[in-house]
Amino acid sequence: MALPRSVFSPAFRYQHLSWFFVALVGIMVYVATFATAAEATLSAITLTWDTGVESRLTIEIPAVEDEANMPQIERVRQTLAILKAQPDIALVMPLPDDEAARLLKPWISQPELLKAIALPTLIDVERKTGSSLTAATLQDKLKNVAEDIHVDDHAAWLADMNHLVNGLALMAGLMILLTAVTLIIAVSLICRAIMATEHDTIALLHIIGADDDAIAKTFQYHARRLAGRASMVGFILALISVGILLFFLRRFADPALLQPMHWAGLAASVLVVPLAAIAMAALSARLSALKLLRSMP
Amino acid sequence: MLVQFEKVSLNYGENHPVLTDINFALPKGGFYFLTGPSGAGKSSLLRLMCCAEKPNTGRVFLFGHDTSHVARKDLPDIRRQIGVVFQDFRLIPHLTAMENAALPLRLVGTDEDYITRHTRELLEWVGLGKRLDALPAELSGGEQQRVAIARAVVNKPKMLLADEPTGNVDDETAIKLFHLFDELHKMGTAVILATHQQNLVERFNKPALRLKNGHLTSLAAKAA
Asked: Residues A123, A257: one domain?
């Protein structure tokens, strides 16, 4: 059974709420696509950091002003000896002074000033896989060498970073959910408005033998058509925005950060957004129309 | 039996009875007038006959089905056996004469070639062969009513209900339309035609149901 789709075309075309609906779908798709892409990018970046440093600890041995008690070189030697004796440690790598200087260069640009400052000695430590060695335990063991040695656990700040990314993902999800609910409400309102203005036509269609499903399908068709156009606009604008964002990210951040991104996966996940919006609009229109039609004789 | 009303009453609101204790039965294939002054309840009676309304009390039988016990999903099948013509035509303004007349066939998924051929023949039969692509606004009142009649009979219904079909046309066109209904009846369609134009009722000499203040004052079945 098929009702000509053009039966309600003017009603949808001239219904002011249709424009509100188009704008809403466009904005929803824009926000959701952008949020999905941003979340995917952040996750990829976190993954890079995760895989690189999650098993590492950094030992900082502050420089001593008075070397009479115990020279810095001796403090480093004893620390290295303790570290190498730990069964949970796979690798111990003292950071060369020139590497430490390179790391500080962005903050202290004058070489002579850099030479004048007593730099701390840094030692990178890699734990064995599955090791339960914590920064606090290791710091306790190093207290015998010097009280001021500090052990920095990368897993701790990575956990904070992960919380931030998860929080952003949750926020993006909530935004998508909120706009989806608004979309469903808007579709329902449009269906109500068109049902009211086209009441006589719908009554006529019932009288000549149209069933509710045939009428509801025409509402579904128009909602899908409107949502399709709006989604396309929102999606293209979001892709442009994401493109601009990635351009600046590559320019100002290390491009290696974006290397492990699964571009095909990202494309697939953002493509789901407009398709989901269209499907949601069409389904909401059909269900709203059916609900309203059932209240008619 | 085509239509049967058993103790049917219809109220709009608590204190506004429209039809009271209506009892009658019409056999298949007849031509009946439904007469009475404006506000007598003619349109309401027709609305009950095309399942656009349910009675507050009593039972309405159409083609042997008790309409108050028909499931909503089965209503369209019953409605498709009934053609309805309205005083105000109720054509869809942005569809052409052809598209309007073909609507009931499209609803049941009829083959497109058959729709085009049959609807064209029907519109030619009602005298609109040259106005197939005209929009309702481009047609006169009489022409619009012919499109509405074509739409009502395009799927060969068992019963044709017409609610004041000549109310918006001049006398000459009204007589032509009545002849059209008479021809449809002769082709086998039962016709129930509501009108307050007593002169036309007398001229065509058909049995009539008479309504006054929501009460049936004479029975067509007896008159037939």
From this structure: no
